């Protein structure tokens, strides 16, 4: 799996979590306000914790593209944890109906996907624009490769 495919898959999963979290979860489900706080005109009850976890997952998915080998493991494990917490929060909502089972499915899918990506990310190479392809080094030298050879301390002549 390529890095860009992995990031997009995790972003799609976070987007689905966001959509599920922003749905109407029923009365008295996820937005239990503290005592003394009065909500004005709130007819739909969204899962605020679920939306926050989806936002964290989206940030982690984007962060995955920028990390090295150790950082990718940390980011994917954190993504898996946020997905599992999303699933637990969804199942804890007893009045949510089908949304609780959809939340559980997406949470488990996100956790499994992120752990699969963590395992597969060992094959990713970290390259920069100055790295040369192995095939290009066997071809005819040009001015750029001569300068690169000089930088490495090799005499290209």
Give a concise summary.
With 157 residues, the protein is mainly alpha-helical.
Q: Quick check: average pLDDT?
A: 79
The quaternary state of the protein chains shown equals single chain
Instruction: Give start-end ranges of low-pLDDT stretches.
Output: none
Largest pleated sheet: none
Shape descriptor reads: rod-shaped
Q: What are the defining features of this structure?
A:
single chain; 157 residues; mainly alpha; 62% helix; rod-shaped; membrane
Structure, described:
The mean pLDDT is 79. The protein is mainly alpha-helical and 157 residues long. The protein is rod-shaped and about 75 Å long. It has helices at 3-21, 48-64, 69-92, 98-120, 134-137, 143-152. It has a domain at 3-27 and 44-125. Helix 1 (3-21) runs antiparallel to helix 2 (48-64) and helix 3 packs antiparallel against helix 4 (98-120). It starts with a helix and ends in a 5-residue tail after the last helix. 62% of the residues lie in helices and 0% in strands.
Topology:
Elements: H1 3-21, H2 48-64, H3 69-92, H4 98-120, H5 134-137, H6 143-152
């Amino acid at each position: 799996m390529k890095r860009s495919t992995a990031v997009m898959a995790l972003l799609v999963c976070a987007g689905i979590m966001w959509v599920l979290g922003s749905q109407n979860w029923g009365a008295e489900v996820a937005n239990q306000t503290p005592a003394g706080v009065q909500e004005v005109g709130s007819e739909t009850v969204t899962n605020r914790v679920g939306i926050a976890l989806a936002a964290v997952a989206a940030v982690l998915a984007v962060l995955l593209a920028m990390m090295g080998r150790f950082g990718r493991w940390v980011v994917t494990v954190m993504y898996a944890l946020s997905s599992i917490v999303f699933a637990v929060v969804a199942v804890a909502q007893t009045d949510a109906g089908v949304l609780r089972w959809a939340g559980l499915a997406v949470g488990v899918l996100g956790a499994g996907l992120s752990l699969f990506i963590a395992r597969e990310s060992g094959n990713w190479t970290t390259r920069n624009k100055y790295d040369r392809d192995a095939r290009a080094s066997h071809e005819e030298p040009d001015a750029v490769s001569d300068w690169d050879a000089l930088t490495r301390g090799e005499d290209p002549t």
